[in-house]
Amino acid sequence: MGRRRAPELYRAPFPLYALQVDPSAGLLIAAGGGGAAKTGIKNGVHFLQLEQINGRLSASLLHSHDTETRATMNLALAGNILAAGQDAQCQLLRFQTHQQKSKNKAEKAGSKEQGLRQRKGAAPAEKSGAETHQEEVEFSVENLQAVQTDFSPDPLQKVVCFNHDNTLLATGGTDGHVRVWKVPTLEKVLEFKAHEGEIEDLALGPDGKLVTVGWDLKASVWQKDQLVTQLHWQENGPTFSNTPYRYQACSESGTFLGLGTVTGSVAIYIAFSLQRLYYVKEAHGIVVTDVTFLPEKGRGPELLGSQETALFSVAVDSRCQLHLLPSRRSVPIWLLLMMCVGLIVMTILLLQRAFPAFL
Fold first, then answer.
1. 235 φ, ψ to 5°?
2. Peptide bond into 15 cis (omega under 30)
């Protein structure tokens, strides 16, 4: 029996390191690159349009944004603003889509500069002279502010995230410092030493608290720069003499937990029980660099179709893979509710017949 394979959704011309999903526009954003080395491998951020075609979730390249000599290693999304970790800096990007109407061929014959070319197969103009228009999408990406966020001897921003109302973003990197910045000016409002060594992940809560995890085997909760509580792996978790453990990531609560491993495997678990529902061994065959779920808002439910959830994964192999979890409900919820109501009505009728004097 052959090894289980996950569908390949997209292959980029460079290694992929970061993923985000914009559910309102149905966009999958994948980023990476070969860095500053003169190997001929490009650096960029690719915007993919997600669509349901013949009952299958597919992705097509909508726009490619060139990041010149900087590979994007981490991403955060706030509306149409991207925060991209590129080497030692954080670069803000704004992306926009514009709907444009192209006129019919007869109107464009006099000037090639009037409007966009009409798509093949568009309806011809009527003899009455009525205009026919074809909507086309124009996509643009604008570089906003950029700021250096890490100051170690070999500086690298490793993580970035926005707060709940997208007015602040926090960064962490190899120097172990957390830095908080205003959006979109990137004016620094807070800086403190959070870990000895690299910061692996961080999250900003709606109450202003900040959670960090680092290579020093610690997970910490902060109120501004004041430590609230801390977990240390050697003190709070199992240890084995020959096996090093460290906290790797912190994530938002939800129904499912998606994991990618250094050997390229991908798994989906139930968040509260850690029951494994899906697993593909060595799906990528090389370290998985990022995973993200298709959100259950915006166009998410439409794109999911009959699936219960969809997980995207990327790796250094330049591939973006799709991992679908089929619905586990054999009977629709609405049918279960109708059956329950029917049982209640039948029970009441039977009681009325058996005990007419009491009902």
1. -95, -30
2. no
